[in-house]
Amino acid sequence: MLNLGEYQELLIKRQAPPGLYLIDEEDNEVLLPNKYVPEDFEIGAPLEVFVYLDHEERPVCTTLHPFITKGDFAYLRCAETTDFGAFLDWGLEKHLFVSFKEQPYPMKKGMWYLVYCYLDQETDRLAASAKVNHFIDNTQMTIEPFEKVDLIVSNRTDLGYNVIINKRHLGLVYHSSIHQDLHTGDQLVGWIERIRADHKVDVVLQRPGYRSIEPNADRVMAVLEQKEGFLPLHDKSSPEEIQEAVQMSKKSFKRAIGMLYKNRKIKIVPQEGIYLR
């Protein structure tokens, strides 16, 4: 069947004035307009396309890659607001609709919003919601402590930043463990530090404990090589100086250089800095 909002591999059935007609396993046809037809194609050959509804609510496909697909989150710009709702730019000609009930507060043209893309069961149309917490759930965990995970930054709080974990769960990165600029919509990797009894999840952006030493040591080595083998960092350096130089906490930095010193990769000169051997 034709699955709206997803990439599908369909077979090229025939060519017509409007473009190519592709079919699925059930022989359902969908048009690939001429503007998206590749230069080289063969009748009967497979082609990966994205299926959605055009301005007349007819299934159509494209070889373009939209900024979001069904079941995914993305940070999108509001292209237009109307009496019916808002429309987001998702990289296709027809904008993605957000009804008023799916807006925590009224969207404004030109502003950016973190949204979730879903198939509206009432209208059978793709739509988006800015109420992203409605589409994540912490009651049944699919993650474990110390596991590496994919993150999408959701919003800033007094404690830190809420993040969406593996597109399924909600977690929190505390301000005290953040050593880089974060913005809503940023996609990055992190590690599960703790899953609490109330199903709240603490996330860190560096591997917890001993697991972080090796990648941090690699980072220090890379910066040393960029700085011609010397960094003016030592025990008296402030956390801010270390953060600016190597983008990690002072505690993580001390662990990393301890490992490098033990492995005879660096020389430490007190009150001066560290040198590559």
Compressed to H and E, one letter per element, the order equals: EEEEEEEEEEEEEEEHEHHEE
Instruction: Pick out the low-confidence regions.
Output: none
Mean pLDDT: 91
Which overall shape is indicated by the principal axes computed on the Cα atoms?
A: elongated
How many DSSP-defined strands? 18
Strand content: 35-45%
Q: Please give the oligomerization state of what you see.
A: single chain
Rg on CA atoms, Å: 25 Å
By secondary-structure content and strand pairing, the structural class works out as: mainly beta
CATH topology assignment of the largest domain:
Arc Repressor Mutant, subunit A
Number of helices: 3
CATH 4th-level superfamily of the largest domain: Winged helix-like DNA-binding domain superfamily/Winged helix DNA-binding domain
Describe what you observe in this structure:
Helices cover 13% and strands 39% of the residues. Helix 1 packs across helix 3. By secondary structure, the protein is mainly beta. The protein has 4 domains: 7-62, Nucleic acid-binding proteins (OB fold (Dihydrolipoamide Acetyltransferase, E2P)), CATH 2.40.50; 73-133, OB fold (Dihydrolipoamide Acetyltransferase, E2P), CATH 2.40.50; 148-205, Nucleic acid-binding proteins (OB fold (Dihydrolipoamide Acetyltransferase, E2P), Beta Barrel), CATH 2.40.50.140; 210-276, Orthogonal Bundle (Arc Repressor Mutant, subunit A). The chain has helices at 213-226, 239-246, 250-262; strands at 7-16, 19-23, 29-33, 46-53, 59-62, 73-81, 85-89, 96-99, 112-120, 125-129, 148-156, 160-165, 169-174, 187-195, 201-204, 230-231, 266-269, 273-276. The protein is built from 3 helices and 18 strands. The mean pLDDT is 91. Strands 3-2-1-4-5 form a 5-stranded antiparallel β-sheet, with no helix packed on it. A 5-stranded antiparallel β-sheet has the order 8-7-6-9-10, with no helix packed on it. Strands 13-12-11-14-15 form a 5-stranded antiparallel β-sheet, with no helix packed on it. Strand 4 (46-53) and strand 5 (59-62) form a beta hairpin. The N and C termini lie far apart (62 Å).
